[in-house]
Amino acid sequence: MKLCDITLAYNESSGGIRTYIDEKRRYLREHTEHDHLLIIPGDQDRTHRDGRLTTVQIESPLMPGQDTYRYFIRPHKIREVLLEHRPEVIELGSYYLEAWGAISARKKLREEGADCVMGCYFHTDVAEAYVAAPLRTMARDWLPDGDSVWASLGDRISEVAAAGIERYIGAVFENCDYAFAPSDAQAARLKEYGVEDVQVVHLGVDLETFHPRQRNDETRASLGAGPDNLVLIFAGRLSQEKRVLTLLETLDRLPKDLGAILCLVGHGPLRDEVEARAQDRPDLCLLPFQADKMDLARLLASADVYVSAGPHETFGLSVIEAQACGLPVVGVEAGALCDRVPPDLGALGAVDDVAAMADNIVSVAAQREAMGRAARRHVEDTFSWTRTVRTLLDRYTSAG
């Protein structure tokens, strides 16, 4: 059987979606005879083959303000690639123009008598993270302070815009044979898009790589930390939807006797601003995106508390990786973090409440060893990539 993934979120600095696809491909190569086709945007048309794994890049422009993320503008080219390679399974990881190229190809393949099923995985809550939330932020920045009428208007505009995106993406999912979500909470969110039949398939974590034994003093020292410092870490996209600047504000609220150091690991549109702030701050460490998972695991395991202020996580893969490394988590009571962080594994507070996040860090820091052990046990009992891929394969093969 040949499986295909189509996504725009696979490049040298992308995170969770790339990890998901890489782990799927590794499992297929090591444990099955299946082939895998990956279709992604690139700076030019090219094809790369590695045994049973094929990657096709389709020339696509950069997203505005981005230097790594591109978006598909030629759905007919996606259709051509799919008709050439003729996969039995197509999975969409992004939902824009690429979806219609895939839907058209599936229709053509079926007309020719080929078996072809299509799934769509809810990796990103696009309507909230990339439409409603940014519009609300712009409204607060641009409209007159303290004017309830203007504030209400800004909220209404964001709601209307988000509703349009929900209807569009809901239509994409409804044109697929399967709809997948990474958690119960995100399955419920997808139903708000108008998609009724949603199956939950949890993501996983590499339990051998992401392990507390990766902790070492040399890595802590490279972050400017000694045995008495509290190292906070966030690994992910440095962007507004991740609320990276909220983490910086929280750092300023923490008691000085904690000796807190905040390590931010990643790439994104806010990187230059964060880099400028880190120039004269020994308590703020900025590191590039870690392509090597072992390097990321060492950083996570050598920290003390994982922090995340972003309210739009659909699964929170970086949170699971941190928990596998034995870290408690301080986050916000929104999105997937509500599922990922029960009270014995960390603490959640209101979105954009800097004071609450600072208080939670102080509280969790005092319990970090016990919470970290519990976090590791929880991940061992709940998440594995083997289970993830086997579940997907079972779903797809049962379609026949």
Write the H/E string, N to C.
Answer: EHEEEHEHEHHEHEHEHEHEHEHEHEHHH
The CATH homologous superfamily of the largest domain is called Glycogen Phosphorylase B
Shape summary: globular
Number of helices: 15
The number of distinct structural domains comes to 2
Strand order of the largest sheet: 3-4-2-1-5-6-7-8
Determine and state the CATH class of the largest domain: Alpha Beta
Please give the radius of gyration in angstroms. 21 Å
Residue share in β-strands: 15-25%
What does the largest sheet look like? 8 strands, mixed
Helicity range: 40-55%
Count of extended strands? 14
CATH architecture of the largest domain: 3-Layer(aba) Sandwich
Q: Average pLDDT value?
A: 89
Describe this structure in words.
The protein has 400 residues and is α/β, with parallel strands linked by helices. It has helices at 16-31, 75-85, 97-111, 126-142, 148-174, 184-192, 217-222, 244-253, 271-278, 293-301, 317-324, 337-340, 354-365, 368-382, 385-397; strands spanning 2-6, 35-42, 46-50, 53-59, 89-92, 117-121, 178-181, 198-200, 230-235, 260-265, 284-287, 305-307, 329-332, 346-349. The chain folds into two domains: 2-204 and 385-397, 3-Layer(aba) Sandwich (Rossmann fold), CATH 3.40.50.2000; 212-382, Glycogen Phosphorylase B (Rossmann fold), CATH 3.40.50.2000. The protein has an eight-stranded mixed sheet with strand order 3-4-2-1-5-6-7-8, sandwiched between helices. The radius of gyration is 21 Å and the shape is globular.
